[in-house]
Specification:
globular, three-stranded parallel beta sheet, D-Maltodextrin-Binding Protein, domain 2, about 100 residues, alpha/beta, about 15% strand
């Protein structure tokens, strides 16, 4: 399921078949992230997009996310956000919908 969400996000961003694009992601160090990492070579072959992950432990994730979201420019192209922060982050204006407008 997480892999499908990642692929949907990348396609929604209009990056399919974008040769030479490198995306940086901040992700939790959890089994789902490792599964996604295993699928990245296939994703890169099919799209030309390379994805680099920085993995952090859950206990450090919130503070790392907030620092990135407050910064004038983020070091990441996309972030993994826990559902527990689903009220805090949108209320602060840090999240944007990915649906086409």
């Amino acid at each position: 399921m997480a892999v499908k969400r990642l692929l949907a996000v990348l396609v929604a961003l209009g990056l399919s078949l974008a040769q030479g694009v490198v995306l940086r992601a901040l992700m939790e160090d959890v089994p789902e992230t490792r599964i996604i990492e295993e699928l990245l070579p296939q994703f890169e072959r099919e799209t030309g997009i390379r994805v680099e992950f920085e993995k952090v432990q859950y206990s450090a994730m919130h503070d790392k996310l907030v620092a990135q979201l407050l910064a004038p420019q983020s070091a990441y192209d996309f972030l993994q956000v826990d559902f527990l922060w689903a009220g805090e982050f949108p209320a602060a204006g840090w999240l944007e919908p990915l649906e086409p407008t």
